[in-house]
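Our consortium's second objective concerns turning raw sequence data into structural hypotheses that experimental partners can test. To show how far this objective has progressed, the report includes one record in full. It was chosen at random from the queue rather than selected for favorable results. The single chain below, 174 residues long, was entered without modification.
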Amino acid sequence: MDTPKSKRLDIIIPAFRGHSQNFLLVLHGISEDDAKKRIEGRTNHIVWMAGNFLDMRFALGNVLGLDLKNPHNDLFFQGKALDENLNYPTLKELKENFHQISPLIYNKLLEISDEDLDKDFPMGMNIDFFPENILNFIGMCIGREDYLCGQIGLMRRILGYEGMKYDFDKDLKY
C-alpha cells in the first residue's frame, strides 16, 4: 500500500482503493439494458447509482484541488433526482470516466497534508459533533460510495444477477 503524507488517511486510502474495486466488481456483467431498469417505477436505476458514485469522485477531486468537471454534471450533481425523460450515459461511459478521475484523486489523497485536511469546508449540516472540514467531507464521500455500491449490489440480485464477487484486481492501484 502507498503511504499517505497524512497518517489520518491510513484508513481512507484502503477504503478508497476498496471502493474502486467494489465499483467495478458490482457493475461487472450487468447489461446496458438492465442498468436502466427500475423496480416497479420506484427505484433509481443502476446507471443513476453509478453516475452518483462517479459524481462523488468528482466532488472529492474538486475539494482536493483537481479542476475537472464531471462530464455528466447536469444529470448527477449533488444527487440530482432521476428524470426518466433525460438520456443517461452508458455504464461503459461511466466506467471510462471513473478510470480517468480515480487515479488523480488517489494521488491527491496521498499528497494532502494535515493542515489541508483541517481546512474549513462548509457543508451546511450544522451538526455540533461534525466539524465541517475537508477530512470529514472525504469521510462523507467514502460513506456515500459504500451506500451506492450496496444499492447496486441489491439491484444486481433483484435483476437476477449473481451476487458481487470479491475478485480484486491487484494491478488496480487506485
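The partners drew two points from this record. The mean pLDDT is 96. The helical segments are 12-27, 46-63, 73-76, 91-111, 114-117, 134-158. Both points have been shared with the crystallography group to help prioritize constructs.
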